[in-house]
Each structure stands twice: as structure tokens, then as C-alpha cells.
Amino acid sequence: MNPIQTIKGWAKDIVDLALVLIAFGVVVTIIFGHDAADTWYFGQITSNLITFISDLGNANLAGILALMVIIYAFSKRNN
Description:
about 0% strand, about 85% helix, mainly alpha
């Protein structure tokens, strides 16, 4: 197998794992609340997401373009 393809496969797996962990953290924070989930991992996920979304919203056109690039990057991945 091509080493580049192997590295790309690892990178895709790492991104998939990160997305699952982020989704899990958001669900835990929503269910148990910010105070109950105030640990090194769960306590900052929702606040970081809110900050990220707010920054995109405050950037107007640049924020929309950045969001489009992010969506394009995730939608072009092959399973």
C-alpha cells in the first residue's frame, strides 16, 4: 500500500474520532449541564463551540466563506 494513502487513512480516522468525542462532549454537557460536566474535557466543549460560532457570525462574509470551506472539506472526504 502507498505510504501516503496510509497516512491519509490515519488522518481521516483521527478526525472521525475527534468528531465523535466532540459530539459526545456536547451531549454530556447538554444532558448534565455545564456545572456537572465541568471537567478538563467536557466543561469547555460547548463554550468553545459557542465562541467559534460567534466568531464566524461576527466575521460576516469572511465567516460565511470560512464555514463553506469547513463544510466543503468535510463533505469531500471518502469513506
